[in-house]
Amino acid sequence: MATNHRIRLNSRPVGMPTAENFLHDEVPVESPGEGQVLLRTLYLSLDPYMRGRMSDAKSYARPTEIGEVMVGATVSEVVESRSPEFSPGDIVLGYGGWQEYSIEDASQLRRIDPEIAPVSTALGVLGMPGFTAYAGLLEIGMPKPGETVVVAAATGPVGSVVGQIAKIVGARAVGIAGGPDKVAHLKELGFDVALDHRSPNFRQELAEAVPEGIDVYFENVGGKVFEAVLPLLNTFARVPVCGLVSSYNLTELPPGPDRTGLLMSTILRQSLTVRGFIQSEFVDRLGEQFLSDMRSWIQEGKIRYREDIRTGLDRAPEYFNELLTGGNFGKMVVAVGEQSQR
């Protein structure tokens, strides 16, 4: 009988997750029920939102309970099916989490065509991160030709797509990343300006890069990057708030003066639109259009992507911490198993 190696939440982290927060175990692989399929995981997506799910603080989604398998999107191969929709050998996008096997309802799966792009891209540019960039920028940011779009964490799976879509619609793209290699990659992707937030002169360099101000700031980071951006926002600027990764492991408010008044007065004075969003709120309306547009843009060479594929489910907690501290270069994916030869 096959065994399922899985990683469960053992305790809630305080600050950066540690090895003690995770529990590795093995259980027998079960059989699917009616309308379900048994899946073997090929690739596991690691994403910053998972840190929030490890906490029991109020959020947009319920927390992972102690003892539950860690959540996560997966690309998997169908092993056994009790649904007419899928057959053994099919490759699907699901939500199997941090484990080698999962059982999921067929209605929650999307078949992946490996002829279009590598199947792992269903977790990145053709998946949730790509759609997050697409919906957040076009529905909230609404960039116009000639406007300036600034995006933080710009080499990540969301930020890199934001900048490239901004160029497609005729806007000017300014990307912010950490380190010379990532800055060089932004230039390869066609960003008009690439900045290193680790530079001691970052504030001045950002101001010089946007002489006419910022019309759209796509927020992935928060912290010191947002502090540098705030005074440069134009009247009627739009700020889609996708993530705040700089604060995910904080255990208390950051030191310094209370900047709430400055933020609120800037929002009022500049007539800013600051809109938090979760990509799922746009799926029903935009999901099919996203897949159509993104596939075309990839085939035309207008969108390029980079994957950071790591090996071994056992090391997922270690890889996850690297993700939270900017140690990834591109979309972080864990290769869990190999596709069967059929």
From TrEMBL:
Q: Which UniProt keywords apply?
A: Oxidoreductase
SMART domains named among the record's database cross-references: PKS_ER (SM00829)
Question: Which GO molecular function entries does the Swiss-Prot or TrEMBL record give?
Answer: oxidoreductase activity, acting on the CH-CH group of donors, NAD or NADP as acceptor
Query: InterPro entries attached here?
Result: ADH-like_C, ADH_N_2, ER, GroES-like_sf, MDR_fam, NAD(P)-bd_dom_sf
Entry-linked SUPFAM superfamilies: GroES-like, NAD(P)-binding Rossmann-fold domains
Q: Where does the record place the Enoyl reductase (ER) domain?
A: 15-334
The organism's superkingdom is given as Bacteria
The protein, known as: NADPH-dependent curcumin reductase
